[in-house]
Request: fold
Amino acid sequence: MKILAVVGSRRKKGNTSILMQEALKPFKMQDIETKLIFLDDYNINDCNGCEGCKETYKCVINDDMQKIYPEILESDAIILGSPAYFYNISANMKAFIDRCYCFEVFDNDDRSVWMGLNEALGGKYAAVIAVSEQEKEEDMGFTAEAMLKPLEALGYRVVSIVKALHLFKAGEALNNEKAMKAAKQAGTKLLKTLQLKERVKTQLSRDQL
Ligand SMILES: Cc1cc2nc3c(=O)[nH]c(=O)nc-3n(C[C@H](O)[C@H](O)[C@H](O)COP(=O)(O)O)c2cc1C
Reply:
């Protein structure tokens, strides 16, 4: 089992980073492989809509996203985290998500027929963590949804959504019990979902013998 956590804040000691690490704790406690990446450490260009990925499901843009694609494919679950930037995700999270367009599969004649590559391969699981300064959820805008909807389109079932409000200064999340608890619970739920999947798969393969 492998979990990939993608941080869309440039603040390495910021609130998104802290909450993402908290969400990974339940996995680490069970010695499950996790990888936390900061998008800011990678040079990721915007999707240019060239459709070069159409036949192969591989993006033709030669930049650091090529280092992240194998991580996405190898992971059993993904956690996306972003601060609210003007009611939306950060620019680097948006660029990352757009570059996952290569994992979308369309019918050749009818583009209303489509699925995420993950869906074709049996489905995967995800969680999202959105962080905002303001206290009211509406002031976070569609930060969580801007990660949730693309993940669903890419064939992930999003089992946990954390909306961590009222966090401004980098590191403040550490003192926010509610947010820390919600992040850990999100990780626990994702872990339990993956364990349930394993259990069902084992049971089915045993019953077929
Ligand atoms: C460019 C920018 C735009 C922001 N827009 C919002 C916003 O729309 N709503 C909000 O509640 N907070 C907003 N914030 C505050 C951040 O979401 C908040 O400080 C968050 O804790 C930052 O997360 P980080 O520590 O992981 O970087 C904005 C911050 C910046 C720098």
